[in-house]
Amino acid sequence: MSKDMRNSKAIEKFGFSKIFGDIATHISQTAGRATTFLCAALIIVIWAVTGPIFNYSDTWQLIINTGTTIVTFLMVFLIQNSQNRDSAAIQVKLDELIRVSTAHNSFVGIEHLTDEELENIRKTCESRAAAEEAGDDAVKRTGRKARKAADQITA
To answer: Most buried of 27, 103, 112, 123 (most Cβ within 10 A)?
Structure first.
């Protein structure tokens, strides 16, 4: 087992991911509120108004630059964490809907395929949909062949 994997398991053992997820969720929800935006805008207004008091000094400019850079840097990670969890939850829900419906179970987990494989499946699905709309027997046979091809790609 690699050192990174051991470190990752140690972090998981102490629940850091759970704590980080909870904090990220709370901060993301708070950051998305109108009052948070108004507070941020107020900080910018106060900073701008104090410009003449500080003669628009380098330090005055550095304060806002440093503050916004730090907030932006940290928010990137929090937002990415929230998006990753939301995407994973939606994917699980979609997979379950596919599993219990008449849709093809072969589509479960296709998010792990390469871009090229996904594009091939998308084209196959579009041609199947067009074939079903047209009602043409020859096109339907092509659609069945495309379905088999898509099933083989994802198998």
So the answer is: 27
- Those residues whose C-beta lies under 8 Å from the C-beta of residue 133, and which sit 6 or more positions away, are none
| Angle at the Cα of 83 from the Cα atoms of 82 and 89, rounded to 5 degrees | 90
Q: Contact at 8 Å (CB) between 108 and 116? A: no
What's the pLDDT score for residue 65? 96
| Amino acid sitting at position 79 | I
Per the structure, the count of domains in the chain is 1
Residue 8 located in a structural domain: yes
How far is the C-alpha of 143 from the C-alpha of 138, rounded, in Å? 9
Tell me the two tokens of residue 98: 């596919």
Question: Is 112 domain-assigned?
Answer: no
The DSSP result for 108-154, as a single string, is: TTGGGS-HHHHHHHHHHHHHHHHHHHH--HHHHHHHHHHHHHHHHHH
Taking the chain (155 residues) in runs of 10, the rounded mean pLDDT of each run is: 60 76 88 94 96 95 96 91 87 83 75 85 82 66 72 69
